[in-house]
User: What shape does this take?
Amino acid sequence: MDHIPSSHPRAESLRVRQKIVEGMEAKVVTKAGLFAHGRGEAFDYLMGEKTLPSAVEAMEAAVAMLLVATHPVISINGNAAALVPEAIVQLGAATGAKLEVNLFYREPGREAVIERVLRAAGATEILGLGDIPAATLSNLESNRRIVDPRGIAIADVVLVPLEDGDRTEALRKAGKKIIAIDLNPMSRTAQCAHVTICDNLTRCVPRMVEIARSFKAGKNRTELDAIIARHDNARVLSATIKEIIAYLSKVADKGVFLEIPAARDPARDPPP
Assistant: This one.
């Protein structure tokens, strides 16, 4: 990504996009994953490309839920593996959650490529690689019904970054507590989850790692349970939508809200 200058106003966004493109070329990400990323980025624009207060509240509830769970699992798809492999591995280590690869498009060799990416990021145990007979989720017909009997099949809490709505519903019907990371507060996944974090994956997961380490060092079980009990997903989603509206209202009042450089005055300004 050396070709992306740091001075570019969209440098970070371009770097993330390049990771997705490189992930597709390496078979980590599918073509459908490109569309999913673009759709999410559109919602990030509506948030001002920053982490909202409602998202931080949801992150804290999510981390508390992972820490008190008996069998927490982080479900990993191609986009998550391409964008935040190190942070995903660190979050698993910080919360005791197992990592399970779960793919809609199970192309030959794709699971092995994602396994290599996760192991390079520091993962030692990775479930969902087909090394033992699989279990299945009821009420789901796609390949994503396939789950690892050591992971999602017995999990009480499942973190699903960038998840399809039908699978979120199936996991909830199976009795799992669902934590979703989804930039669209109106998506089926966001609406069905018990805890929804409306934030960019690249900002969210590293911050969750920090929260997990802080909570492990400074909070007891009673305090963690209290954080979970206070969480109301409907209220948090409502707050997210209101924060988006407030940002858009501020932008609408200005119309042109970016700093637009003035034309160079040849008589006053030397040539660059």
